């Protein structure tokens, strides 16, 4: 059916052309097979098959209104009304026999009307086909000017719009002009640009070191616009060359430490992007093989490549290649976590293309880093051959493994991992290593598996990646919670950390009263000897005897075995009191808490408390000596009244001074034992129960020990008041020696007085002041009591001065508890009034 319609159309067109051409007087008898007729027929077919459309909108109503306005403006109102009525009927008619494309028919009527108007103005061509100039056999296409020169009476109809023929002529002329201005065809330049984009010099486009880029050689004749276009497109080759050289240099240096696994992953990611880039260039090279058609042939040939089309193809690769070049410049001197952090900063971009590209790149770059995190958090393994991880390990002793074995490297910490998260990552891996190395425990593996299951990740490689920071944080949180809890359970239950702390409090901080009192009693006489004469083995025996004689014998034997006697370095003039001390042996893993520096501070506190106990013991000894002498002092009835008054005065002065000293020592010891040691222990026990990890436990113990040192006046800021306190201790010990001399003399005087009446003749020992008789006895007793009274007055004066200096320094201390100590010592404001009077 369609073939019949086409044949009918061809026959009608042939008959129409024959009739129109036969009206030309120059060709009255035209042969149907002549070349001129066939050429004209082909041209007619070309017009009918043309896809050109009018440059107006297909709106029939608008065209009808235009025709109606034209008729009205020409004064043909009746014709305008008739046209409007006919158009209304024409537009409303539908169904069989109606015209489908109504606007085209109305537009045809308008064009015919315009052609008639043009014919009236000078051309009589209303009945001919346009541009059928058969009068000139050699020129079948005539322009309007040439037609007027021919002055045909029945000439060819020239339409004002002749798109096909005029465009062909213009395109041919443009092609000729392009050939004249270009020494090189565009196809060759396109191929050279593609070579340049691969870092290869082409025939005309080469790398110019002066401008640091690819450009068309100056000797080649091309338009300036083309030269600029080639330079812009060849920028991609310059960028490619930079990225490619970075990859080559980095991989040639691998496995150098400067490259590392993160740098290798970065090169692999860049290489993957270049592989996609190579695929694009392969497609473009295939298209470049097709010739570039003329503009008039563009409708039938679209699979070709021109410079402008190449600029469209290069738009996306140019963005990616620029990003890669920027990253290459940024990461040349970086490695590991620092490199990943620098790349991450460029991922914060609003362009979806750039953001997606950077995310894909970072997933590849950060995969080694996240694998290190996974291995460290779940296995405690530091897989960092090239020093790229933000956690650094170093060989240390076992007791320093937790404090110094692993540190954060801030320079390698990527910006997408916060410092708090990095600290938790560090602590989790440290806990695993501490359990494995120091505690010889393997229960952490179950805790790590439970943490991975709770966080929804796996323990195998590749379970984490970039962009999963929330998942990483969840994994670290779960792992830290479980592993730290397991670590504290091991310390508390298996290694009895709390019990060891309590043992140190009992023995080094003298909290076990019966043990301390018994040890002081049995070791006191020995410690009064020169230090060089004292054997540490003998003191160890005294220590064991004190343990067996007190409730300390019921403590854990392992803890008692750790308690040992320590003789500090001493000189020739030192006494045993100056060098004796106790120490507690801390073994793995407890030596992580009780380090050498911690035990040295415990030793300072012990020496201070031991001296305080020695002072208290001295005052108790004075009281024991003083009481029976006070009772029997009235038996000196045979002495002169003046001597008896001196004796009573000395005894009273001694008693008053002892009361002052005892008041100070009792209140100060109460302050140390209850307000310092017990309160600090209570706070430490509470914080120990609330500790969530080993760092919390270490911080709580450090706070506990610092509080004891500071409140006991042993800190660096309390050196002045501490010296004043030790002066008071020395005065009390001097008072003890003078009191002993006083009561020894009184005791001997009492004995000699009783025996002087019965055995006066027997006591003739030379050099003895008792043998001189009652008179000599009285004289020597008076001199002795006078000397002792003077010594007591001197000690009392020094003690009052030193105590006043000590009390004046107490309110200046930062610790609030020391101010309450001042309140306890001066409760009746006796010293305040005394100071105001002085």
From TrEMBL:
Question: One Pfam family name from the record?
Answer: GCP_C_terminal
Chief place where the protein resides? cytoplasm
CC per GO annotation: microtubule; microtubule organizing center
Entry keywords, A to Z: Cytoplasm, Cytoskeleton, Microtubule
Q: Where in the cell is it found?
A: Cytoplasm, Cytoskeleton
Ranges of residues in domain Gamma tubulin complex component C-terminal: 499-831
* Superkingdom assignment: Eukaryota
Which residue range or ranges hold the Gamma tubulin complex component protein N-terminal domain?
Answer: 190-493
Record family assignment? Belongs to the TUBGCP family.
Tell me what this protein is called: Gamma-tubulin complex component 3
Q: Which organism is it from?
A: Cardamine amara subsp. amara
